[in-house]
Structures are given as C-alpha cells and as structure tokens.
Amino acid sequence: MPLPDTMFCAQQINIPPQLPDILKGFTKAAIRTQPRDLLPWSAAYFSALSEGRCLPVKDRLEMFDSHKTNNGLTPGLLKTLNKQLSPCETCSKKDLQKKWKGLCLPMDQLEDLLLLGSFVSDIDRMKFFALGCSALGGTLLSSLSFACEILTEDEEGGAARIPFDTFVKLYTYLADLDEDMSQDHIDEFLSSMETQVKKQNGMIQVSNFYTSRK
C-alpha cells in the first residue's frame, strides 16, 4: 500500500524522551559483547530489558580467541550466562537454552555439555558452569583457573580469589567426571591446600592450587 501523500513537520513527530538513552545503552552493549549474530542477540537484549532481567551483555570487550575452543564460548560469555541464571541454584533446560541462544552460542555445543553432565530437566547451575569452564580450559586446573577469574569479586588483574567451598564443589565435580582420577588423589589434593586457605580467611586463589600441584 502506498504511503499517504502527507507532509510531517518536526512538531508532529513524537520521540519518546527515553529513546536516546536506550539506543546509547544498546550500542555500548553491542560493542562490548560483539555478538556473532546481531538480530537474535538484539531480541534477547530488548526482551530482558523490558522484563527487568539481567542483560545478555559482557562486562567489557575481551580479546579471547574463541576459535581455540571451537564453540564460540568465551570467559566473558560464560560469566554473562552465569549472571543471567543467578541467583537460583537450578534452572530449567528450556530457560538455559533460551539464554544460550540469546548469546548466539552454538546449540550443538550446549547439547554436548548437557549430555556430558547427564542433565535432563532441572540443571544445577554451578555444575553446568563447571562444564563451561572445562570447555574453555581443556585441563582440570586450567578450567579451575577460568572459574576463579570469572567468579572472583577481586578487581581485574588481582588475585582472583573465590570461597574455598565453591572451589571444592567445582573441583570435585570435574574430577569425578575424570575416570582416571581416584578419590584418594582428590582428597589429597584438597587436603594439601587447607593450610594455605586457612591463612587466607577461607579463600583460594589461582596461585594456590598451581603451587600445591604435585
């Protein structure tokens, strides 16, 4: 249908006063996040914005080479996903799939992680987070390094400390998935760090478990 032959003057065009700030925030978020597909990410962004949910936005632009993991997942995206799923301890598979898709991550990689964790419906958030770290790190200790760097409340470039009980849960879960890792080895490793952790008020940092490795 052709547009009516009507002239509009500037006074007839109503621009919502919030629009400039909304567009500015959106543009900054897109630059920081660098989504692989702008359209579905934009839909997820504005849906979360309208509902007052955590936005699918990275804290900062990162230079992580996602091609090394062959799945597009980066520490920044995993951190964003974990924040979107917080503070609940569990989430539904449907909700996880929706948020994963909103971050433009490959769905086949998600299905691989769900299969590895034997998840069916209700998904333990921290266990899934641990699997995400393993997809980034490759080895157990490098995976835990990513976990500390993502979960820490320290400033960037700091000690990357997290509560020891959180570390124990992540380490134990990933170690249990390794058929070559004995329970004695797991217990010995955790025990070797207890003295250091007590001196640090129950916190553990990346350097602790690397120096404790034997």
Describe the 3D structure.
This protein has 214 residues and is mainly alpha-helical. The chain folds into 2 domains: 20-55 and 67-136, no CATH class; 139-214. It is 57% helix and 5% strand. It is built from 11 helices and 4 strands; from the N terminus they run αααβααβααβαααβα. It has helices spanning 19-33, 38-51, 75-85, 93-102, 107-116, 125-137, 140-151, 164-177, 183-192, 194-199, 206-211; strands at residues 90-92, 122-124, 162-163, 203-204. The chain has a two-stranded antiparallel ribbon with strand order 1-2. It has a two-stranded antiparallel ribbon with strand order 3-4. Helix 3 (75-85) packs antiparallel against helix 6. The radius of gyration is 21 Å and the shape is elongated. The N and C termini lie far apart (75 Å). The model has no long low-confidence stretch (mean pLDDT 89).
Topology:
Elements: H1 19-33, H2 38-51, H3 75-85, E1 90-92, H4 93-102, H5 107-116, E2 122-124, H6 125-137, H7 140-151, E3 162-163, H8 164-177, H9 183-192, H10 194-199, E4 203-204, H11 206-211
Antiparallel strand pairs: 1-2, 3-4
Helix pairs in contact: 3-6, 6-7, 6-8, 7-8
The main β sheet shows up as: 2 strands, antiparallel
Rounded to an integer, what's the Rg over CA atoms? Answer: 21 Å
Uncertain parts: none
The average pLDDT value, as a whole number, equals 89
Helix content: 55-70%
End-to-end gap: 75 Å
Question: What is the strand arrangement across the widest sheet?
Answer: 1-2
Strand content: under 5%
Question: How would you classify the helix and strand content by structural class?
Answer: mainly alpha
Total count of helical runs of at least 4 residues: 11
- Shape field: elongated
Number of domains: 2
Number of strands: 4
This entry's quaternary arrangement is single chain
Helices and strands, in order, run as HHHEHHEHHEHHHEH
Keywords: Cell projection, Cilium, Flagellum
InterPro entries: ROP_DD
Main location: other
Subcellular location: Cell projection, Cilium, Flagellum
